[in-house]
Design brief:
Helices cover 51% and strands 12% of the residues. About 6% of the residues have low confidence.
Amino acid sequence: MCCALTAGEHPEDAEEAECIPLTSGSVAELYIEPMLPLVGDIDMMHYRNTHLAIPRGHPPPTQLPAEFHNYVKVHEIIDSHLPGFVYVALRYLLTQCSDDARYNCIEYAEKGYYLSNKGGKFDDTVAHGPATLADNSDTSSLSVDVVRCVRCLSWPPQAADWPTRHRNNGWPDSATLDRVVSNGCDVVGVAHRQCKQHKWMGNYQWRLSFSRAEIVLINSWTPVQQIVYHVLRVYVKTERLTKCADNSGAGTLSNYHIKTLMLWACELKPNSWWTENLNLVRICVELLNTLAVWLTDTRCPHYFIGNCDLLDNSFSVGSVASNLMSLNESYFSTWLVNNYIGQCAQLCPHYISRLFDDVSTTMKLQNAVSEIVYWRFDTALKDLWREVDFAEYEISHTVSQFSLTVRSCVCWMNELTKIDKRFRVYFSAVALLHVARKITRNGFSECDKMSDILSTIFGLRSSVLPRRRIQLNAPELVQLLQKSAVEHLTTYRQLVAPDFGSVATIVTTDFEALYAYKRGDYQRCLQLSTRNVHALLYARRTPSVPTTPEFIQLMDDDIVSLTALTLIVNPQCRNFSNNTCISQLTLSLYLMTQCQLKIHHSVTSLAQTLDYVEVAQGTHPRQRTLDHSTLKLIERKVYLTISN
């Protein structure tokens, strides 16, 4: 979502420019799923497609990736007196030719224009090192660190030795090396801690960033290596060995030092060191002891840049080095039980967490850990189901609130595919409904704007809209888009249902029934809805259907009115997804009742429906406002019909 929102915005000083985002940090690097959280915030880098960096002395490119603008300012990367820190000087202007998509180059006559590292901050952000902390409270419980950067498509000469240096243990392999080098690098707007107070360097110094390389490398680690990295990070955090740098200029130990330690270990240690007689405690202690030696000798070699050291005499390591040096397996085992496994136990029910009141013997400890593992396996799928349900709502809510552009569509689809390909199907449905909503509101004047979005959704080079404009009027086109969206939603339900059938009851024809009702096929809708009610009536967990504007267009006036009244009477409902969603059961009951009324079913059938409603009322929590209002509406409709 964060990537898509960033991609949909234009920088204030360049209306045609676009921001190209990249998820980085722990979110992108780690694929393991431990009980204790991996991620404290979301790290996102973004660069403007009107700026490009090249190594000093390199010729400007004649071709660029498709995301770049027709006009691109090219900056040279110039070394500073500190390895890894550079200046970015404007040198060329590239203009794209319309006939062959190649770029022509114009050299700026005026030299000495350096790009400031202070630009590009958002109004609703707080400085956080090279990042800005975006206020994302409306869409996520996680904060977002947004890092402005300038893209460099070339592997930097400062790290020229990295791809070719001798490696004895086969990591990274040649394919991974090639992928890393082909991704190039970035420069991020931050000065060295010793230069931040300098009047000029503090404003114009940048740092070479290898985040793209780190994502590829860490994703190539084995699960054991990722687990070790995670545990080391938790250890230095809980033992308060790291803290944010202040303005004094003194450096402190950071997560990046732990990452560097792990990268070197994965390269230098043979595979057997990680796998033979596997012992997490032994591995962690040896690595922390190595870190202690680095701190004592005031050295931490940059993993990519040969002559760059991440430690110097300005670092305030104090007693950290001696504490790490004295660390042994007995101490770390105790810490792991009390501060890691113990924290996992706190996430469990009381009957499990209280087992840790006494783990004085190996047998008691094994029993306690086993109970955590069993509970985790039992609840993991339920947790995942809740996240899927929440993600569905957030996708529809965010698209509705912030609209879509071609660039944001691409980002949505790319980022969601990384999580689960099925989300891409769901997003495509929401996007189709979004286009239908826009055309309903603005008519064919919206078609040209939306045609590129449809091309992106369907993966076509050109949209079908211009060719069909003569044959279709706006209502017909909207109907086609809605029909396609319902087909996508039905496919999505069919893809999701098999994986979660043990923890939730998911019917796959709820949107098909809804669309049958909308087009007046009441017999088909009644058939599907009745079957769905019977399947859902006593289910413990069921999906929900959002009532965002994208989905509300599929529903009738009564549901639209109830949704509007819910939001008017209780505006807080806008911030809680469950309150403004309608469950599959409630929706199926409503559609079944409406069809029974329209085709004049017997009083006996309607009385049975009232029994179903009574059961449904007991299954929905009180805060499900729209569900309870809809169920009351069903009762009222049925009672009025029976009394008449």
